[in-house]
């Protein structure tokens, strides 16, 4: 379990770095586009599609890390009134459903990549599949981190913020 946790921690850290660099790069590109358009009366033709691709990467990678750390959206009012064993079951059900959603993202994102492979993005000269690659990457990470949370809970180990209960009460 320790090896899985260390591996997932490294993957999460790398995903956050990629997301942070992507956000910073997108901000710089959009700022340059504004400068070019309004000061130089010119335009950077590839800035918008490239920024949208970057945005996909940092949104999906950031969301996946949020799931690992327990910061995804939840409706937890019921958790205040149920016993600890029920809480653990509900947390596990939530992680299972989120993992299935991640698997769906990866599978259907891969199908979208395959269908757009022969399409060329005119301003970038890249395959249209790059538009859907963040969906695949984010889906794989969501699945990985959901499985990690399920395995940690099954082993009696705490997960990050969401889903933590005193295991002595269970």
TrEMBL record:
Its main location: membrane. Keywords: Cell inner membrane, Cell membrane, Membrane, Transmembrane, Transmembrane helix, Transport. It comes from the Bacteria. The keyword Repeat does not apply. It is a multi-pass membrane protein. It is found in: Cell inner membrane. The complex comprises the extracytoplasmic solute receptor protein and the two transmembrane proteins. This is TRAP transporter small permease protein. The lineage of its organism: Bacteria, Pseudomonadati, Pseudomonadota, Alphaproteobacteria, Hyphomicrobiales.
């Amino acid at each position: 379990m320790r090896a899985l946790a260390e591996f997932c921690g490294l993957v999460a850290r790398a995903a956050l770095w990629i997301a942070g660099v992507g956000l910073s790069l997108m901000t710089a590109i959009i700022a340059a586009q504004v400068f070019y358009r309004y000061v130089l009366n010119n335009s950077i033709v590839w800035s918008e599609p490239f920024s949208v691709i970057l945005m996909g990467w940092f949104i999906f990678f950031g969301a996946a890390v949020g799931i690992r750390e327990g910061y995804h959206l939840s409706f937890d009012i019921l958790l205040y009134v149920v016993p600890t064993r029920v809480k653990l079951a509900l947390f596990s059900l939530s992680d299972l459903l989120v993992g299935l959603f991640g698997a769906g993202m990866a599978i259907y994102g891969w199908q979208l990549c395959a269908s757009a492979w022969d399409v060329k993005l005119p301003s970038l000269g890249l395959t249209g599949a790059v538009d859907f690659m963040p969906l695949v990457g984010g889906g794989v990470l969501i699945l990985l981190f959901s499985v990690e949370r399920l395995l940690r809970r099954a082993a009696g180990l705490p997960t990050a913020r969401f889903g933590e209960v005193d295991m002595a009460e269970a």
